[in-house]
Amino acid sequence: MKNRKEAIVNQTQVLVRRRDALRKALAGDLSLLKELRSQTSGDVVDAALDSVQDEISSQLAEVESRELSRIENALERIREGHYGLCEGCGCNIPMARLNALPYATLCIKCQRESEREGAANRADVDWGRLLDSGSGEADVSINDIELDGS
Ligand SMILES: [Zn+2]
């Protein structure tokens, strides 16, 4: 258990560094966007290029800000002392998985299950589970009833 604790301390440092880098990148992207807008002269080609550039930048910013909120979520879980616990089944997520995916909130088994359930809107799976933990309990009790009946 001590090794796991040390590994989580290391993980915290990795996460904080990554968070700071993302914050900087996001701040940089915003200033870049402002610069691009102020340079728009009304030329059709320039405007088209500008909108493409805008789209790429805003997509990047979206990905980065999503990762940033995941990292902040992970850091909050570290502070609260339940980092590395699976939100699906409550088991300890293996350190190898946390090293590969520091803000994982599900073990591999639960991740696979949630991907099967939400393949259509995969991006919302993690947040859906976070916001709607009550429905997870309902699923368990339905399964229990089925088990009792067979
Ligand atoms: Zn799990």
Q: What structural category characterises the helix and strand content?
A: mainly alpha
Q: List all distinct small molecules, including ions and cofactors, that are bound in this structure.
A: zinc ion
The largest sheet is: none
Percentage of residues in helical conformation: over 70%
Proportion of residues in extended strands: under 5%
Can you offer a commentary on this structure?
There is one protein chain. The protein has 150 residues and is mainly alpha-helical. The chain has helices at 2-39, 44-80, 95-100, 108-117, 125-131, 133-149. The radius of gyration is 21 Å and the shape is elongated. Residues 127-150 have low confidence and may be disordered. The structure holds zinc ion. The site of zinc ion has 8 residues, from α4.
Describe this protein with a few key phrases.
single chain, 150 residues, mainly alpha, binds zinc ion
Question: Can you describe this structure in just a few lines?
Answer:
By secondary structure, the chain is mainly α. The protein is built from six helices and no strands. The chain is 77% helix and 0% strand.
Secondary structure elements and their pairing?
Elements: H1 2-39, H2 44-80, H3 95-100, H4 108-117, H5 125-131, H6 133-149
Zinc ion is lined by residues 86, 88-89, 91, 106-107, 109-110.
